[in-house]
Amino acid sequence: MNAFFKTLFGDLYNLAFVSAVVGAAALMVHFGAGKDAVYAMPAAILAGAGWFAAR
Amino acid sequence: MTDWTIFVPTFLAASVEWVEAFTIVLAVSLSIGWPRAVGAAAAALGVLAVMTVATGGALRLGVGMASLELVIGVLLLLFGARWLAKAIARSAGLKALHDEDKEFAETREALSHGDRHAAWLIAFKGVMLEGLEVWLIVVALGVKTAHPLSATAGALVALLAVVFAGAIIRAPLRRVPENAIKFVVGAMIVSFGTFWTLESMAGGIWPMGDWALPLLFAFYLAGGLATAAALRARRAREAVQ
Question: For B134, which residue in chain A has the nearest alpha carbon?
Fold first, then answer.
């Protein structure tokens, strides 16, 4: 079961990172900064992928 | 009619996973013979097919488009961010490239301690776990775009191609450029994930509509390659010091 969840969702760091990015994007959209979110979200995802790669 | 924007990422992602599954089944076949090893693989593929039909149908039942986009978008981000990170790390030399020969040797070693039943389970579990990633992509891309046949066809054509190549070579398929494929597919998957996640929160948020997708793909691919080059340069500097 552990392998099943890890295959689908990755480890806790991955889960926490994606949750944080999606949560931040939701807040930006909610507070009227959706136009900025379309640039901020890809930048955050790429920065996160780079950090995971270097980790 | 085939939707190639769905078929291509599914085909590429599935090819990588089926090659890894084939290596495990090949190693197991040397212990318990082809019929039983193929039987284990077929059983796992059967479970995956049932899962695909069941989850594809369930996701469309009574779920609004925005909720569906959010669930699928987040799943693709969880999955794609890992693929992209792994591809960057391998390209930068921070992580070893996936080695089918090593995987084959490790599976043979594991089999030397077990019985025929354990060998069957290793083949089943190997195909099941590799196939889970294919299942996720087929369901996510197929359901969201209403092109389940294009997504399923991509996965099945990849399976047939790997089985055909494997039947001819009868050795681990080590020449598949796995990391290049993972780079491209990782960038494609995070692009779809980013697009649908934000679209679910505010419809029509993307300035250029659907044309934002190829731009996102170019951004992630170029950004990933640049990040890998920067990490490689940093590693070289650290090695000199």
Answer: A8
